[in-house]
């Protein structure tokens, strides 16, 4: 189709239903029409540049249109496009695993392919459940999850979610879980006079949130099959950064009560938190790990659910014992997706972006604090690796949020699009989820422009 802005918008408005979007919000405003991208920037149909400050929903790792990733796809298209993965294998899937294993602890040795983060979680939940069933512990059927946790939008993933805004309506469709409090340092009842969470690496508390988790394990462990958590960063729940000690405590409790652990690194994996995987920062290993988004450098959809040998062995039996894992999708281990995942992992190995990016990350954190800490509407500042967030509040002293009807986050989003960047909010939390290729100059421009947008919207609100 030849690009015709008016026509694109007309057909889109008439026929397309966008994700996580109240379509009526676009009744009298147009979404940007993106036609090209390069590095950290998009180009709109009018030729305007727009900083992709959230890495296209937390997927993009090395910047848009990386030549090596593009080349890998092109080459793969001369070899093999697709083959079903039940009863067949191919070298491209094997190479993904061989390369990925170099970055993972050796205990995580069995890999199940699928195609998106929610599915990686569904697979993990079914595996954890069936692990106990296959071994005769039929009462262990329930999951523990965290308030503010998010694991995707399919029904299993929704069941273990803890963000009410997304999940409340679907409750009758979901299974029952135990929800433990989030390690949300800024809003911790023990910590009401605490200012900023910052990187949450120096906790000054007794981890009351872990005590609550232990109460659940203690009373119900014989009914619990697993606990699921996002390591070090509750992403969709508000970019909540929490101390590594919490994760270590969670693992210790789970082991004590013989509960399986599922780490969801769909958002945090592949360098985003400053290490290849966030769990490394706590020095812990789960029974099951979920990966997606950045696995292909954020270019094509692919996911993995990774387990220990112990989990795998609970399924490994003569066919008639009925222990098979009945799960699979049409595009499991698609070779084109594999080819770009291989190129992504090769980039991590050859170019060491995390080592090279240390100075940029430090600069990002320092400038976040310098620019935002004196603003009366900034309640909390938190950061980890390439992720940073400010939580906006109506009253800094009491931490009172802005009234929801003011739609502060949404207004900031809309204004940001006019000012050359994408500030997608999570409620009134404004965040940056940057790709690993970002430079100091880009960080500076993104943060100063962001501050100007936020200041403009908040000032406007106060005036109105
Ligand atoms: C931690 C986490 N898990 C799972 C998902 C779901 O992934 P997908 O959108 O690929 O289904 C997300 C998506 O943002 C996520 O942040």
TrEMBL record:
Cofactor(s) listed: pyridoxal 5'-phosphate
Catalytic activity, EC: 2.6.1.62
Origin: domain of life: Bacteria
InterPro entries, alphabetized: Aminotrans_3, BioA, PyrdxlP-dep_Trfase, PyrdxlP-dep_Trfase_major, PyrdxlP-dep_Trfase_small
Subcellular location(s) per record: Cytoplasm
Residues that span the membrane, as ranges: none
Family, as annotated: Belongs to the class-III pyridoxal-phosphate-dependent aminotransferase family. BioA subfamily.
Protein task: Catalyzes the transfer of the alpha-amino group from S-adenosyl-L-methionine (SAM) to 7-keto-8-aminopelargonic acid (KAPA) to form 7,8-diaminopelargonic acid (DAPA). It is the only aminotransferase known to utilize SAM as an amino donor.
This protein's name: Adenosylmethionine-8-amino-7-oxononanoate aminotransferase
């Amino acid at each position: 189709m030849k690009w015709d802005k008016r026509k694109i918008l007309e057909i889109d408005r008439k026929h397309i239903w966008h994700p996580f979007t109240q379509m009526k919000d676009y009744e009298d405003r147009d979404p940007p029409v993106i036609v090209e991208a390069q590095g950290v920037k998009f180009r709109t149909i009018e030729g305007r540049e727009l900083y992709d400050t959230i890495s296209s929903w937390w997927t993009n790792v090395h910047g848009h249109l990386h030549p090596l990733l593009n080349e890998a796809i092109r080459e793969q298209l001369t070899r093999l496009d697709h083959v079903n993965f039940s009863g067949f294998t191919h070298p491209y899937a094997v190479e993904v695993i061989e390369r990925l294993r170099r970055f993972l602890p050796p205990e995580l040795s069995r890999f199940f392919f699928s195609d998106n983060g929610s599915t990686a979680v569904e697979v993990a939940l079914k595996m954890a459940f069936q692990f106990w069933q296959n071994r005769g512990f039929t009462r262990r059927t329930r999951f523990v999850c965290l308030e503010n946790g998010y694991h995707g939008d399919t029904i299993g993933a929704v069941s273990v979610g803890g963000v009410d805004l997304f999940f409340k309506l679907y409750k009758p469709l979901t299974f029952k879980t135990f929800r433990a409090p989030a390690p949300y340092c800024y809003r911790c009842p023990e910590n009401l006079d605490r200012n900023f969470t910052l990187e949450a690496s120096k906790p000054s508390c007794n981890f009351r949130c872990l005590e609550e988790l232990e109460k659940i394990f203690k009373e119900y462990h014989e009914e619990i099959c697993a606990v699921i958590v996002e390591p070090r960063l509750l992403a969709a729940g508000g970019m909540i950064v929490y101390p590594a000690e919490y994760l270590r405590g969670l693992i210790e409790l789970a082991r004590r009560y013989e509960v399986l652990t599922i780490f969801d690194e769909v958002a945090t994996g592949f360098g985003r938190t400053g290490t290849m995987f966030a769990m490394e920062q706590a020095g812990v290993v789960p029974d099951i790990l979920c990966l997606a988004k950045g696995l292909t450098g954020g270019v094509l959809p692919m996911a993995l659910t990774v387990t220990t040998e112990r989990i795998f062995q609970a399924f490994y039996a003569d066919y008639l014992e009925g222990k098979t894992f009945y799960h699979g999708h049409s595009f499991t281990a698609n070779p084109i997706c594999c080819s770009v995942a291989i190129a992504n992992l090769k980039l991590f190995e050859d170019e060491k972006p995390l080592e090279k990016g240390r100075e940029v990350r430090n600069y990002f954190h320092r400038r976040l604090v310098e620019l935002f800490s004196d603003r009366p509407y900034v309640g909390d500042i938190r950061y980890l690796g390439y992720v940073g967030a400010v939580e906006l509040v109506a009253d800094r002293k009491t931490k009172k949020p802005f009234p929801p009807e003011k739609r502060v986050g949404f207004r900031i989003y809309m204004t940001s699009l006019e000012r050359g960047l994408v500030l997608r909010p999570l409620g009134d939390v404004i965040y940056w989820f940057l790709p690993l290729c970002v430079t100091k100059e880009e960080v500076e421009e993104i943060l100063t422009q962001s501050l100007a947008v936020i200041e403009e919207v908040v000032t406007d609100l106060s005036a109105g």
